[in-house]
Amino acid sequence: MGTMTFQGLPENKMTKQVCKEALLRKYPAGLPIPVRERFEEELKCLKNTGSVEELELAYRLKQKADKEKQPLLFRGTITGSFLFFLISHSRVNPLKPHYYCSKCGYYEELETDCFGIELPSKTCPDCGKQLEAEGFEIPIESVWGPLRSTPFYFEINSTPDFYGHAESVIKAFYADSDVRKFAETELPGFAVIPKGYLLSDDSNIHEDNNVKKIHMIFDDALVRIRDLQKKTGVSFYEIPASELGRINCMDIVNTGIFDELFVNLVMRIRPRCFKDICSVFALSRISCSYIQGHGLNAVSKTEALCEMVNQDFYQKYPVYTMEDFFDCMIREGFDRETSAKYMDGIHFGAIGRGRFLKKYPELEGVLLPDGLSQIANSIQYLWYRSEVVNRILKAASLSLFQKMEEVHIYL
Ligand SMILES: [Zn+2]
Questions:
Q1: Ligand 1 mean position to 100 CA, how many Å?
Q2: What's the pLDDT tens digit per position in 384-405?
Q3: Range of the domain at 204
């Protein structure tokens, strides 16, 4: 078979250069130790997993989207990466919640129940400048796997108008390969077929492992955001994350982009901060034994989920995302690798079934504390924290745009 080559510079200097420049822009007064450590660790993962290609492609798609003024988001493990954060204008800084002073380099990490963007405003104790607050605390293992060996994965999330632009970027990127659009299935996207590789049958594109698939999800909320960008003259990416962090739950609901289950849960639980809103959204996406047998009805699912989170073990271990499970295990004194393997197991819904111990036989005999094992055995699927955060950030942006539009109309 042929090989698939992408049009990167030798040793992919471009991406590294872009990352380094972004790093200096973001931290102009010097790199705090946790920043440097995460950056260097992820560069190693990037190299070891051969993910440079994915990062570089994501970067080029982002450049194109900016040029065409099309809002673009990504889905998949890439969104929790610090490298991706640096090159993409993403608001999801994966470090621990922290303050940073761009004038003198002061850095302060916090143990808090909030995300960084909702921390109270504060001035630098050393030089008096207003501090920047960030950090969604996404463990490196959530991106690169328990052994830091899982390559990046992403899907493109944009407007239908971006489909043609994405095609031109991908075709230029894989100039030696045969790039085809596919739209006949539920999920449109692109197939990259290596040069000289003969498909046995065109309908095999989706099953053929030699063909790279890049899926694209069209998003109505992003279409609305794009139209509101035009009307208001404000760019989606210019809205500061700190402003989005102060959104209230009714504004999120009023965007009209969420399903009945999430709206019901918000009404019942009344989340009080950004992180709580994210938890409720993640709860609406949980797949677990508590909601089985409750049919597909949003009202009965709401009851079952509220009953679940009100139980003592859930109060003790508030697990809404994969990373929440990881955090709970770390707090209980488990090492990172074991905790990360459980986080992975939760994601593929296997804990308590044979598949989990087949994948990680070394965990045979590891005992979780009571409540946590109850959660592990009942949950079949949890979302990534970065994905949950991205959804709520998108809704918060849409809500702010809608308010700007109202002002626009009434003035
Ligand atoms: Zn300072």
A1: 8
A2: 999 999 999 999 999 999 998 8
A3: 10-95+135-218
411 inside domain: no
Measured in Å, residue 101 CA sits from the centre of ligand 1 at 5
Q: What is the dihedral of CA 351, 355, 356, 362, to 10 degrees?
A: 150
126 CA distance to ligand 1 middle (Å): 5
Strand order in the sheet with 189-193: 73-75, 155-158, 212-218, 189-193, 178-182
Beta partners for residue 123, in sequence order: 130
Residues 57, 157, single domain; the answer is yes
Tokens 């049009």 correspond to what residue? 7
Domain assignment of residue 347, yes or no: yes
Q: Does 250 share its domain with 186?
A: no
132 CA distance to ligand 1 middle (Å): 10
Residues 39-84 have pLDDT tens digits of: 999 999 999 999 998 999 999 999 999 999 999 999 999 999 999 9
Is pLDDT at 210 greater than 60 in this prediction?
A: yes
CA 215 to ligand 1 centroid distance, Å: 44
Report how far ligand 1's centroid is from the alpha carbon of 130 (Å). 8
Residue 206 lies in a domain: yes
Residues 284, 355 within the same domain: yes
CA distance 374 to 2: 49
- 208/256 same-domain check: no
Q: Is residue 207 part of a domain?
A: yes
- Supply the pLDDT for residue 257: 96
User: Residue 238 C-alpha to ligand 1 middle, in angstroms?
Assistant: 24
